[in-house]
Amino acid sequence: MLSFWEKESLLQYDYIIIGSGIVGLSAAISLKDTAPGSRVLVLERDILPTGASTKNAGFACIGSITEILTDLQTMPAAAVRDLVELRLRGLRLLRSRLGDAAIHYRENGSHELIGPREEWALHQLPEVNRLLGDLFEGKPAFTLANERLPVFGFAPGYVKALISNNFEGELHTGKMMRALIDTAILKGVEIKTGCTVKAIDDFHTGVNVIVPHQTLQEDLAFSARKVLICTNAFTRRLLPEEEVVPGRGQVLITDPVKGLPFKGVFHMEEGYYYFRELEGRVLLGGGRQLDFAGETSTDFHFNDNIQHQLEELLRKVILPGREVTVADRWTGIMAFGKTKQPIVKVHTKNVIIGVRMGGMGVAIGSIIGDNIARMALESGSL
Question: Are strands 207-213 and 199-202 parallel, antiparallel or unpaired?
Answer without folding.
Answer: antiparallel
